[in-house]
Amino acid sequence: MAPSVRVRLGKKAKEGPCAVCPHAILKGVVHAAVLRAFGLSQKGVPKWRGEHVHLACLPAFLIADYTRYVDRQKKPRGRQAGSSPFKLEPEQLAERKHLIRTRARLLRLVLATSDKDRIARLKERVVKVQSELGKYGGAPRQNMMRRGEEDRAELEEKLGM
Ligand SMILES: [Zn+2]
Question: Quick check: 83 pLDDT over 70?
């Protein structure tokens, strides 16, 4: 999220610390009360954190907040290249990928039909692909798959596996 800061000027009701410099903000001094957004809570509500700074310290505060945003390290999503848990040679990895794609395609075909004979034939192929996959690290883990709960339940029911 882009840096979002709300600034309100006001007289300090009581002496307190400045978020930028080590000097206190004295009672009665016009200062900036700053609210910073820190992402969203689990309920999706933006979380705000309030801080107080001297007016003279406000530019430094805003620049620091901007830098915090610009410099933050975005964690790349998904599995990182070379982090495969399987100790496979590149050709084996390619074969594994091919088998996983084939398996996914077959499962999609199973989901698309209610023809019992067709499902039985598809199941044979799925079983074959899965046993092949055994040589290449086994079937993908459930939590690595993007299939929804409903589809999973339907597959279990249709394939009995
Ligand atoms: Zn200050």
Answer: no
Whole-angstrom distance, CA of residue 33 vs CA of residue 92 = 60
Pick the CATH number of 4-70 from 3.30.1740.10, 3.30.1700.10, 3.40.50.2000, 3.90.1150.10: 3.30.1740.10
Instruction: DSSP for 70-121, please give it.
Output: HHPPPPPPSPPTT--SS---HHHHHHHHHHHHHHHHHHHHHHH---HHHHHH
d(CA 94, ligand 1 centre) in Å? 59
Q: Is the pTM of this model over 0.70?
A: no
For the chain, report the end-to-end CA distance as a whole number of angstroms: 43
Q: What is the 72 CA–ligand 1 centroid distance (Å)?
A: 24
Indicate the residue type of 157.
E
CA of 33 to the centre of ligand 1 (A): 12
Q: Tell me, in angstroms, the distance from the centre of ligand 1 to residue 30's CA.
A: 12
Measured CA angle at 93 (ends 90, 96), to 5 deg? 155
pLDDT at residue 84 is higher than 70: no
Q: What is the mean pLDDT of residues 19-42?
A: 90
